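Researcher: We plan to redesign the surface later, but first we want a full-length starting point. Tokens attached.
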């Protein structure tokens, strides 16, 4: 699941949202939660990974966030993805 924000989220914000979504019946096997912020053709990404808050890197989530941003028209072409904590 990917959210795009206009402002950086704090560690408390990402942990709060990520942990709450883990408890939903809709996600029986839990869910990775991505928080992306696009600036100058660059995605700054934080990931809450199925109970492992904020891993240092997650290639599959970087690709998923890039694909979502491209499909939504938030970015137009290739870009860099930076992980934030």
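Model: Full-length starting sequence:
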């Amino acid at each position: 699941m990917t959210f795009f924000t206009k402002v950086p989220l704090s560690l408390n914000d990402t942990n709060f949202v990520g942990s709450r979504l883990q408890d939903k019946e809709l996600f029986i096997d839990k869910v990775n939660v991505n928080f992306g912020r696009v600036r100058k053709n660059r995605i700054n990404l934080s990931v809450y990974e199925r109970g492992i808050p904020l891993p240092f890197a997650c290639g599959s989530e970087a690709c998923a966030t890039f694909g979502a941003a491209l499909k939504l028209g938030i970015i137009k072409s290739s870009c860099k993805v930076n992980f934030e904590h």
